[in-house]
Amino acid sequence: MDTHTTVNQKMWDELAPLHATSRHYDVDSFLRRCDSLERLEIEEVGEVAGKRLLHLMCHIGLDTLSWAWRGAQVTGLDFSAEAVRIAQDLAERTGTPAEFVCADVMTAADHLDGGYDIVFLSKGILMWIEDVAGWARTCARLVRPGGTFYILDFHPLALALAPAGDGGGLVVEGDYFHKDSPVVVVKDGSYAVSEPGMKNQESREWAHSLGEVVTALVDAGIRIEFLHEFASTTWSGGAADSDENAARHRLPTAFSIRGVKD
C-alpha cells in the first residue's frame, strides 16, 4: 500500500467507530428501518434480487446490508479494518447474509473471484482515487460480461467550488482537473462528526474531471448506458448545494453513471 493510501487508511480506521455512533449514520434507526439507500440509487441500479452485488469502498456497510435486504447476494469491500469489523458486526446482529473483505479497492481483483452481476459504488468515491484508469480497470475485471457497473458520486465541479462569502455567489477554490500531487487536507472530524479530537486528521485527495472518469470506464470495457447530473440530492453537499446559496439550483452537485461490461 502506498504512502497516500496508508495516510487515508489511518484516518478512516479512526473515523469508522465515530461514524458508527454518530447522529449522521444513526445506526439504531437504520437497524429498525433496514434501509439506508437513496431512492435514486434503487431506481437507477434496478432489480437486485438473486444477483451477486459487490459494494466497493463500502465503509461500515449500511448500504451493503440494505442491498442484501432487497434480495442481493452481497459482498462489501473496504480498506479500513475498523469499518469492516463494524460492518461484520451489523450483519451478525441483523442476521443478514453478507461477506465483508478488508482490502484496498485498487487490489480488489486480487482478493475477489469476480464475476459479479453488479459492481456498486456510492457517495464519496473518486476523491480518494489517485489512478482513475487503474480503478476503472479493476472495477471492470470484477463485473461479469453483461453485468452492471454503477456509481453515484459528488460532481467534480461542486467539489471545486466554495461560497464566495456573505455576498453570495461561488468562487473556484479547488481543482476540476486531475493533478499528480494530492491535495493534503487536515481536519478534526468529517461530514458526520465535528472535532472529536482525532489523532489521524490528515487525508490525501484528488480531483478528476467527468471526462476523465467516463473515458477511463470506456477504455476499461464499460459501455455507458447513462450519465446523469443532478442539481441537488438529499446527501450531496458542498458550495453548490448550500441552502444559503441560490446558485445551487443552477449547477450540478452529483452525478451517476451506469454501464454494462461487454
UniProtKB/TrEMBL annotation:
Per the database record, which ranges form the Methyltransferase domain?
54-147
> Which InterPro entries does the entry mention?
Methyltransf_25 (IPR041698), SAM-dependent_MTases_sf (IPR029063)
Recorded GO molecular functions are: methyltransferase activity
* Keywords from the named record: Methyltransferase, Transferase
Q: Name one GO biological process term.
A: methylation
Question: What Pfam families does this protein's entry cite?
Answer: Methyltransf_25
* Superkingdom assignment: Bacteria
What protein name does the entry list? SAM-dependent methyltransferase
Origin species, per record, is Actinopolymorpha pittospori
